[in-house]
Task: inverse folding
């Protein structure tokens, strides 16, 4: 081996062989040749044997009936596609797992294909019955117009937006790497308060997932204030119940009852006084004639005291100039009394000459 280039490992091995007493070049060369041939042998990967085995992957249950205890078709198909790409199971094993996961109407779809159907045929059949049928334009419209609802959390809102994004990618309308657009639309659809509070994070955080996490932190900071505003106050109820058991509260309650009784008594007395016939004609009212007294009797109980005394006790409305007018006993018209009646000359009859227009003391005959 003299004159040949030796690696570091070969040099170490030669030194070790010299220490063992092996220093013949021919033997050393044969030993290196044997070791190199053994190292050159490649181990071929051993494929898992599926003959006579019952090992199969377990998928989420799928009924195809929109039940609460089943996975959606998009979730179920994703599980199958991910396992096929992983290649940890053979196609027959994955097909067996799919058959075991399908229930109800979805299981009846396989019966139409027959027992010899392949995994590709089964997935194409299920996708034709349960796959998305929305057009690219419809998905993109929903993706661009998606916004957070009033009582919707960030997690629920982002899930809806990402679902539209995934459908758009499958329809070749977007690429999986268009996360910058996803981030812009996510911020644009936030509620007004979160959108304003996250302007700095939007410009300083480039990755969508990191930005979404910061928005969730802001949402968590706002939640205690919303809970305190909606939470009913029960401390006052407990305090009142405790206060009712104290002697001071009993004494105060008794005093309040007495005050209420006193107020009720005064209100009854006042009401009785207002409804009573309190009008008494004065000496001055008696000289005004019977019409004035009849008018006063007509308005009794309503605060009528005569025009010379102003408004009545029980009437708080403003009185006009012609509210209470006297009635003439001769012509029976309002606005004047019989002594100032303009038709007195036509209505008076003289007792001496029996003619109208004057009285006996003014009789010319």
Result:
């Amino acid at each position: 081996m003299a004159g040949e280039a030796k690696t570091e490992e070969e040099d170490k091995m030669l030194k070790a062989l010299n220490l063992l007493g092996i220093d013949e070049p021919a033997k050393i060369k044969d030993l290196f040749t044997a070791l190199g041939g053994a190292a050159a042998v490649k181990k071929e990967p051993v494929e898992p044997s599926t003959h006579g085995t019952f090992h199969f992957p377990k998928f989420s249950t799928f009924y195809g009936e929109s039940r609460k205890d089943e996975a959606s078709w998009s979730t179920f198909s994703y599980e199958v596609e991910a396992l096929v790409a992983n290649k940890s199971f053979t196609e027959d094993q994955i097909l067996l797992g799919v058959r075991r996961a399908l229930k109800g109407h979805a299981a009846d779809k396989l019966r139409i294909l027959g027992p010899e159907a392949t995994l590709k045929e089964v997935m194409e059949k299920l996708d034709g019955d349960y796959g998305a049928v929305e057009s690219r334009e419809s998905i993109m419209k929903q993706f661009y117009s998606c916004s957070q609802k009033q009582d919707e959390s960030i997690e629920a809102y982002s899930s809806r937006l990402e679902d539209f994004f995934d459908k758009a990618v499958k329809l070749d309308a977007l690429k999986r790497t268009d996360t910058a657009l996803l981030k812009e639309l996510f911020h644009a659809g936030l509620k007004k308060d979160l959108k304003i509070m996250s302007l700095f994070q939007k410009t300083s955080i480039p990755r969508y997932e990191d930005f979404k996490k910061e928005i969730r932190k802001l949402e968590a900071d706002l939640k205690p204030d919303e809970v305190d505003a909606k939470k009913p106050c029960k401390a006052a109820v407990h305090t009142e119940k405790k206060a009712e058991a104290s002697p001071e509260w009993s004494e105060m309650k008794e005093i309040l009852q007495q005050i209420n009784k006193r107020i009720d008594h005064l209100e009854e007395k006042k009401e009785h006084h207002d409804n009573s016939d309190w009008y008494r004609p004065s000496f001055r009212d008696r000289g005004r004639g019977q019409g004035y007294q009849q008018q006063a009797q007509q308005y009794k109980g309503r605060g009528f005291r005569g025009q010379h005394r102003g408004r009545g006790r029980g009437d708080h409305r403003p009185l006009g100039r012609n509210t209470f007018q006297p009635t003439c006993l001769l012509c029976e018209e309002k606005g004047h009394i019989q002594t100032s009646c303009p038709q007195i000359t036509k209505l008076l009859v003289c007792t001496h000459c029996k003619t109208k227009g004057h009285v006996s003391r003014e009789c010319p005959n």
